[in-house]
Amino acid sequence: MFKKPVRIKSNNQVKGSERKSIKDLFEKSFPNVPKNDINNYLNNKKDTLNVVKVVTHTNEVIQVYLLQKQPILFTIKDSIYPTVFLLWKFPELLQSFTVHPQVMNFISSGADLMLPGVVTPPAPLNKYGNGIQEGDPVYVNTSDNKAAVAVGVAHQSSFDMERSNGRGKCVVIHHYYGDYLCTLDGGSWTAPNLGPPEWLIKSDVYEEEFPALGESETKQEESAAQQENDNVSEDEELDMDELLMHTFLASIKYSKSLILPVLISNFFRVQMLPISPELDLKKTSFKKLKPFLDEMAQQELITIKEIKKGVEAITDINRTHPKFNEFYLKPEDRPKTIDEPLNTPSTKVTESYVITANVAPLFQEANYRKGDILDGPNIRKLVTEYVKQNNCQLEDNSKLIRPNTPALKTVCKTENPLAWEELFEKVLQSMKACFCVNSTVNKGKITPITMTVSVRSGNKKVTLIDNLEAFGVNVKEFAKECQHGVAASTSILPAGPGKKYEQLLVQGNQVIFVHNLLVEKYGISKKYIRGLELAPKGKKKK
């Protein structure tokens, strides 16, 4: 997640009043740490606590908390995770998995932790943790140092790991020592040497795996590294085979757009890929789709026929086959069509303003500072409170304000009385406009998503969509949805002169489809979408 550089969207110091809520969140998320330890760690007001919003290379917005410039916590969606630095301080926060040091070469290259790479304790200790559930936060340490080196979530429960016979994925890695999260605020931190895990020192594994001082370790390390490399490759292939089978069964059992016969080439592109965009056929043991489908045909799950020379299609699905009947997906996990209601939260757009040095004194009493963001209603409320606290209303006419404080004189640029609305207007003019899309802050005024229809060579129409990214829409994913939804080619064009975001081109006049997709799936209000009037005549809006 932090393997590639991240972009900082905002960096604000946490106010004293907000520290308590962060401390409460800490206690709730990690009950294993004594309250006194948490209080001593977070309540020192001399230690600056900042909250930083960053955008990853996948355009995911993540909130990071830094104590004295050291990242200690980060959030992904609604979950909070400790960094390796915080785990050095409080190793009891989470359960851990131990690996040999050379395994970190693979994790640092972006790989998740596979079960063959885990050093497991002997009986009667729990081999893969104590009651870990799928999705639980965990961390990784090494056999020569129990200090955390990576943080992530369990890919499966302890029980399932035990049953897997040492195969498959163990931890999905979110953050590791040395990634871009570690250097977020320019800091450089050295991992402490806490010694090997206690269980490893007391066990025979420690003696077997680590030769006595003076013995040659190079050959053993090379052998272990090669073995780990082989295991990782095998398990990646195994996992991708499982994903391939899962996607295939989901396509033939739950797809509502599947119509037989379907060409093999179209089946993968239209049915399977939208379900699992991360599916890479080259990383499966089959390497290509055709051998896999031939295997499914041999198992009598499907029937494949040559409909014309060199062109094959799936013509029938065996809905009585045990694998077909055993496969089950919860309704919320099944493939969706555009017309189905999706459990996607609405996109909340809020017009806001950044506090500047000129207006900062107006909000000082409410503990807001330069750089903080406020929406219009809160600005009116706080300015009204400021005016009344400083007795700036005329005694004989409460509808007029006398700019008789240094801050109001600076903002209004006059000492003459003025009306409330004029005062609010002056304040807003002295602030920087921005808008918040969910939790993401964008500079400047809101620019709506704009659809235009243009004619290209051959008198062919195309639909151009601008400003998708301003509303948190991933252009690549949106392009795929358009491509599959209207069976039309798409392309992403670089931002033109005077434009900030990439432009999406969709073949044909697809205004209605794009409009409905934005409103129904992404929850974007119609008032932020322009161009519906360009829809083809004779087609009614759904």
Automatic annotation (TrEMBL):
Signal peptide (from-to): none
Naming one, the record's GO cellular component terms include: cytoplasm
Domain SUI1: from-to ranges: 449-522
- Assigned keywords, A-Z: Cytoplasm
Q: Where is this region: Disordered?
A: 212-234
Q: Where would you find the membrane-spanning parts of this chain?
A: none
**Protein name, UniProt field:** SUI1 domain-containing protein
Q: From what organism does this protein derive?
A: Hypothenemus hampei
